[in-house]
Each structure stands twice: as C-alpha cells, then as structure tokens.
C-alpha cells in the first residue's frame, strides 16, 4: 500500500442499531474501492469484518473491526462496530478515536432504541456525525418518515444531501443535491449520471435551497454571499458543510442500499470531498480546556490495524530523544513497555 499524507486520510466509525447494515456497508465500501473483487455477505459468512467464529455463528458483529478502503487516492480507515446492545461497550472506545461518526438508519424502522443509544454515546464523546439511510431497496423502506423521526431526535441540523427517487424493491436512483444530478445504479450495470427528471426538479430545488442555507450558517462570509446572490456555488457549499460538520452544527443525510451497492460511490465521493482529514479537525484539549499543541519536530504514527500509536519525540529535526509506544485498550491509550 502506498504511503498516504494526512490530508489523504479519513478516520470514520460506522455505528447504528443491530442489523441496520453496518457490516454490509463496510463490505460495500471495500468492494467499491477495489480491494476485494467479490463482495461477501453476512448470510454467506464471508465478510471482511465479521470473521470471528462467534460472529459467524450469530451472523452479527461482536467485536469492533478496524478496516480500511482506498478510493480515488484517499485512504479511509473505518471501524465497523457491533450494534448488539450486549456489546455496546465495544462502541464507545472507537468513537473517541475517529473523527466523524457515520450513524446508519434502517429505512424500514426509522429511529430505533439502538440509534438512541448510539446518539447518547455520540453526544458523550462530542463527535460530529453524518446520517446514512440504508436498506432503501426494502419493501417497507420509508425515507420521508425516517427523516421526520431523525429531525425529531437530532433537530434542525439534519440536512438532506441526497434522496431516493424510487425507494422499495427496484431502488436504483438517487438525486444528489450537491451536484444537482441523478445517479442511476442499474444492478450489475455501470453507474449513469443523468439530468434530474422534470418530475423531481421542484423537490430538488427546494432541498438545494435548504442545503445552501444550512451550509451558509456555518460561516459568516458564506452567509453574506448567500444573502447577496441567493445561492452558493458547489465549492462554497462543500466549505460550509465541512465547517458545519467540524463545529457539529449540521449532520448531512446520505442514502444507500448497502446490499446492492446503490449510492455507495456517492458516499465515498462525499467522504473524499466533505469529510475533514485528521489535520483539519480541531486539536485535542487538555483537562483545563487548552489546546494540546504538537511540537513541530515530534510526530505520531497511528496504526489502525494494531490500534497502536508510536510517538517520536525529537529535540530537533534529526535528533530523536525517545520513542514511545501506546496501545488503545478499553477506551484509553496504555503505554507499551
Ligand atoms: N434489503 C437490504 N438488506 C440489507 C441491506 N444492508 C444490509 N442488509 C441485510 O441486513 C442484515 C443485517 O446486516 P449487517 O450488515 O449484518 O448489519 P449490522 O448488524 O448493522 O452489521 C443482513 O441480512 C444484510 O444482508 C440493504 O441495503 N438492503
Ligand atoms: Mg455487523
């Protein structure tokens, strides 16, 4: 694997209620990135994430798995979490080391008890989150009701970035409010990006207006531009979304069928364009609320596969004073002797 610079890395955690499709989405993202040539499924017991005997037996994740995918020169580190309430202890530590949480909603069920438990942890660790509505191919999928319930729980910050045109069996088309195009994902076929059909234009325009307004709210200069021109460019929306995510003032909504890979390439584009890299995230604070400044000569390396951090402490550029290794265990970094 090639060496990635900080700006080419994204660290995300995938959470959601049991059976919302976290493991299936993780698999779809690895497949879409071209790291596997055949997509596994939870039923066939051959996903990258659920490989431990207890997980194969239960057909459900028990332990948080740290995985990655590569997409258009970006490395995405992802933690697939168990959603089973018994194992929810596994979820909390992974939240404290990711930059942005992807909270999956099952379009059949809307907000579930598991969603609320995850939301409590997200608030406790004070981390930005994005909403991903999954299972839109299901016959009982109801995107609108899921969004209504999400607005009731999370408030006005919920900002629809995409919506399904034909949810339910046969679901294959998503209107993307950022590019103002329709993405058609024929099963087994090649993605087609087409103009938004006339029947969807009014709805798309209305959502675009809300998106501009929410993006503008995250930055005063964007708000002024929005008032002056009545709209924002795509670059300005992306800037506003990024700032809104970092300040936790907005949560974009994406939509997918992880099982059929519908919308997964759009989700990866979103991760590349909008999700902040670790270098763009605010610095950690000490117990007095002061930012912990990195010494410019020292550096830190995190290996998500082993959950180990190596800290190189240098006096100047060439003189290494010491090297320390820490392992992330039960929610804290423990020094490895
Ligand atoms: N119809 C449909 N089923 C899905 C989708 N995503 C996941 N599933 C199924 O839902 C079940 C739970 O999926 P899994 O990925 O294990 O969920 P997790 O518990 O959140 O990791 C499995 O039977 C999946 O095949 C989807 O987009 N559509
Ligand atoms: Mg799972």
Can you describe this structure?
The protein is of the alpha/beta class and 337 residues long. The chain has two domains: 6-280, P-loop containing nucleotide triphosphate hydrolases (Rossmann fold, 3-Layer(aba) Sandwich); 299-336, no CATH class. Helix content is 30%, strand content 25%. The protein is built from nine helices and 15 strands. It has helices spanning 22-32, 53-58, 91-97, 113-125, 143-154, 198-216, 220-229, 234-246, 264-273; strands at 9-16, 65-71, 74-80, 100-106, 129-134, 158-160, 162-164, 173-176, 181-184, 192-194, 251-255, 299-303, 308-314, 320-329, 332-336. It has a seven-stranded mixed sheet with strand order 2-3-1-4-5-11-6, sandwiched between helices. Strands 7-8-9-10 form a four-stranded antiparallel sheet, with no helix packed on it. The chain has a four-stranded antiparallel sheet with strand order 12-13-14-15, with no helix packed on it. Helix 4 links the parallel strand 4 and strand 5. Helix 3 crosses helix 4 (113-125), helix 6 (198-216) crosses helix 7 (220-229) and helix 6 (198-216) packs across helix 8 (234-246). It is globular, with a radius of gyration of 20 Å. The structure holds guanosine-5'-diphosphate and magnesium ion. Magnesium ion (MG) is lined by residues 22-23, 50, 60-61.
Provide keyphrases for this structure.
9 helices; 25% strand; binds magnesium ion; Rossmann fold; seven-stranded mixed β-sheet; 15 strands; 337 residues; alpha/beta; binds guanosine-5'-diphosphate
């Amino acid at each position: 694997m090639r060496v990635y610079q900080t700006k080419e890395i994204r660290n995300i955690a995938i959470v959601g209620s049991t059976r919302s499709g976290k493991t299936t989405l993780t698999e779809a993202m690895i497949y879409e990135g071209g790291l596997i040539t055949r997509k596994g499924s939870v039923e066939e017991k051959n996903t990258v994430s659920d490989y431990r005997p207890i997980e194969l037996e239960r057909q459900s994740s028990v332990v948080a798995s740290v995985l990655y995918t590569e997409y258009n020169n970006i490395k995405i580190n992802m933690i697939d979490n168990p959603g089973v309430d018994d194992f929810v202890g596994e979820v909390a530590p992974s939240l404290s080391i990711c930059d942005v949480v992807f909270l999956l909603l099952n379009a059949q069920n809307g907000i579930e008890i598991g969603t609320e438990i995850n939301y409590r942890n997200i608030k406790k660790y004070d981390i930005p989150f994005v909403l991903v509505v999954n299972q839109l191919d299901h016959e009982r999928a109801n995107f609108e009701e899921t969004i209504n319930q999400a607005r009731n729980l999370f408030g006005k910050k919920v900002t629809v970035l995409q919506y399904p045109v034909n949810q339910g069996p046969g679901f294959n088309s998503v209107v993307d409010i950022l590019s103002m195009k329709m993405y058609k994902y024929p099963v087994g076929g090649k993605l087609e990006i087409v103009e938004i059909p006339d029947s969807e234009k009014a709805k798309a325009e209305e959502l675009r207006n809300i998106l501009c307004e929410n993006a503008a709210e995250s930055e005063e200069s964007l708000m002024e531009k929005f008032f002056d021109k009545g709209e924002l460019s795509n670059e300005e929306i992306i800037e506003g979304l990024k700032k809104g995510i970092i300040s936790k003032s907005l949560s974009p909504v994406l939509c997918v069928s992880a099982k059929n890979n519908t919308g997964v390439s759009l989700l990866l584009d979103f991760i590349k364009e909008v999700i902040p890299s670790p270098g763009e995230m605010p610095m950690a604070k000490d117990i007095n609320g002061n930012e912990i400044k990195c010494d410019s000569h020292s550096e830190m390396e995190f290996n998500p596969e082993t959950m180990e951090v190596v800290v190189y402490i240098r006096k100047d550029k060439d003189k290494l004073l010491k090297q320390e290794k820490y392992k992330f265990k039960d929610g804290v970094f423990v020094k490895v002797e």
